[in-house]
Batch of 2 targets.
Target 1
Amino acid sequence: MPIMDRALNVEVNRGLCELFENAFAHADSASGCIAIGQLYPNKQEVQICVCDAGIGIPERVRLAGYRFPRQSEAIAWSLENGTTTRAHDGPPGGLGLFLLRNFVRVNGGTVRIIANRGYYSCSSGSPILTTLPCALPGTLLQFKFRLLRNVVYQLGD
Amino acid sequence: MRSQDMTRIQIEKDFGSICVDSTDGASLGELIREALVRGETVCLDFTGVSTLTSAFLNASVGSLYGMYPKERLDRDLSWTGLDAADEDLLRLVQRNAVRFYAAAKPQQDILRATRQTIPD
């Protein structure tokens, strides 16, 4: 990892750990997940990709009983505050992807998710939702963040 | 009136400085629950914890809102040693947990409705 100030370091570590926890808790991936990253020193940005070979976010959402016309909409739903496929007899959930999306928005970065046939991309503007011609088995999440200094990351509902 | 005993849980001592795993969170939740069952108040000491996730906090603190009323937890559960960002996260987890357990019944109704309107 590049040198980052404390606030950025905390949010990046938190975001990565949330993604790993999500992959193990929700993906049903027999092979766990793979994470790779690259530093772009000239642009002062980092891209990290976390990929699992599980059932994919749209399928997980469908199995929980939620129905969306397009799979990309199921992905968008999963990034909203407090939305979760968890049953109500267990602990709450639905904050990990929401926190990551908020962090990236404040930082000026990007989140891209490909899962099954859904594609979702979000940066500072409106998200882009598309249906892909073929399906990815599992979920691939890429997030890009800028190596900004002296930025305060504050949560918001 | 009898003053309540207080259990102080040092998170770093019991779970290390990186608190990100929901299984560890569930273990912490069990420690809190045992103290509450004994009628004690609980103070969570996060001093020395460098990384916290919502997954850890949901399993430890959030899950308590499915067992105890918010008023009881407001009164008997406190914490110390969090910086501003982590304090925001804990409060977000609390609000989300209250919403999550309050929505249990309406959410089941929504699920039934969406199953009927949008086919597989």
Target 2
Amino acid sequence: MASQKNKKENQLIKASDVVFTAVIVAAMLAVLFFMMPKTSGKTVQIKQNGQVIRTLLLSEDTTVEINGTYHNVFVIKDGKISIQSTDCPGKQCQKTGEIFYAGQSIVCAPNGVSATIAGGGDVDAIT
Amino acid sequence: MWMPSPDSKTSKFVLSAVLCGIALALSLLDSALSSMIPILPGFKLGLANVVSIFALYHLGFSYASLICVVRSVLTAVLGGNLTMLLFSLGGGLASILVMYLVMNRISLIKVSVLGGITHNILQVLAAMLVTQTPQTAVYLPVLVVTGAIGGFLMGVICKLVFGRVPKKLTLHAK
């Protein structure tokens, strides 16, 4: 027993040390990933309950209403998409404002709707 | 031959002086290395941190801080400037403080990792103050990563060093 304990204490690098460092590094790399220089997206995918229901071009100004439990009105203008109006509780999706970077998204959780901007096709490779 | 007890003021004083010298040398070696191998701007291993940790464990918080101050001042005198002095003082002392607070609770390597991270965070904060640009915070994650990696490596070195230092030098450890 005693020798075993001694052995453990003499061990140069403990597994917990590696895990401790790796977690910090991983967390910071994740932060970095989200802070990466961003490129404007080209298309936006609107999903409802996990299924893609619309794919829109950011270059074309348009208005789309998504009906579900609630109603979200998406507006694309000047290459940016935002929720113009919604009747969901909290209106968190509307508060997100305009988005246009690849990878950004507007989520309306009460309605199960999300709009995610895709880049030049390389976003799928990352996600 | 008369030997001062390792706990005496004299022996602590002498050990601190030796550590100051080692820290200074390591500090200069570190800057030389980082300019020779530019992995990332401002990336340093934190070699002098080994001395800080050694001092912290074997001489205590106040000696470790003092050694850090002396080392920072000497490094600045030998080829730095006032801004650099403030950077290294702030980072060094803050990391010693953090390491002091956690040293009895977690393993040596984790202590070193936290010290490295603290040091680098303080550098970024100092840079933000000096340049008056909040955008400097963008470097924070990068520097936390390099601080953690550097801290980990230095922690391993520390462990190796701790195992090799003659016991009679370190009797006053804890």
